[in-house]
Amino acid sequence: MSSSEPSTDIVVERTLIQSSATAFPTNPRTLADVREEVAQSLALRMITKARTIDGVRIGVHFTFSKKDDGRFLRLVTSHIRARLPSSRYLFAIATTGASPTSRGTRGGTRTSNALVICGSDEDDVQRAVLLASSKFLGRVDAVQNTGTLLAASVRHIGSSYDDAALWDVLSKSVRTPIDPLLPPPGSRSIDQLLSDARSKLERMTPRQAYDALHDPTYPMPVFLVDIRPASQRAREGGIHGSLIIERNVLEWRFDPRCEARLAIADRYDLKIIIYCQEGYTSSLAAASLHELGLLNATDIVGGFAAWGAAGLPGQIRPPSTISDEESYQISQPSFDSDDVIDGV
């Protein structure tokens, strides 16, 4: 070995000293340093994943609850502000889970967490405050509004509803005012809604519906459903043997996952044939059942008026779940329709 080269022992010792210096720095990181780093990382992530609407960056983010949630979220907003000094933005950040600082007086854990809405424009933030207040009715424990920043304590936050609600709040808050006489971007006319609904359906003529209802070999249960209001049924008549389920409770009665469903609505392959008076509302109703997973739902072309014009009987064979002497009418459920809707 050359005399100018360090010995192996010296090299090993130097390596150990350097390793020790790395493992035990003279200025170890504090908890505040870690929180600062996490806040910076979260702010950068939100900015990177932000959507742009009418030139404004918006974003929603949920993070696990930490000690002193409110202060931490304010720290995140300060980093967003520092990184977007001249940009217009609106962000919502909330913590989820049981907060370490929100213990009840009897040892229980409250479920209130922090929500912060921050923006570069005070008008954007205040519009968001007004919209958000209607999204979290009865769930807000405390609010602090400072113009460009809203800090609130909200119970049970973090669900898919909350995520969608906050995105909706931010999107509507930053949209550029439009001519009230022009349709807003993304809106559709009733003709478009009807066309889109019917594109999902295998619509039936009155004769096809009648034949399916009386075909003992049909591969799945078939039900004829009258969704017209009582006044229209009284004025126009109806088809004896059909289920009478008014439009305002239809989804609750046929969703197999809903506690308010009918006893027959325990499977997803039901052939539900809906009719209204002329075959318009019924198409929208059948498409709505498709959204629930009832992909065989359809309606009658021309509705009850077309059924009568085709000369078909005013009575069909009742569903196999009841006797021939019974009419299968469900116009008066065991609880009010309004209660069903309010409870969902």
UniProtKB/TrEMBL annotation:
<dbReference type="InterPro" id="IPR036873">
    <property type="entry name" value="Rhodanese-like_dom_sf"/>
</dbReference>
<feature type="region of interest" description="Disordered">
    <location>
        <begin position="321"/>
        <end position="344"/>
    </location>
</feature>
<protein>
    <recommendedName>
        <fullName>Rhodanese domain-containing protein</fullName>
    </recommendedName>
</protein>
<feature type="domain" description="Rhodanese">
    <location>
        <begin position="222"/>
        <end position="316"/>
    </location>
</feature>
<feature type="compositionally biased region" description="Polar residues">
    <location>
        <begin position="321"/>
        <end position="335"/>
    </location>
</feature>
<dbReference type="InterPro" id="IPR001763">
    <property type="entry name" value="Rhodanese-like_dom"/>
</dbReference>
<dbReference type="Pfam" id="PF00581">
    <property type="entry name" value="Rhodanese"/>
</dbReference>
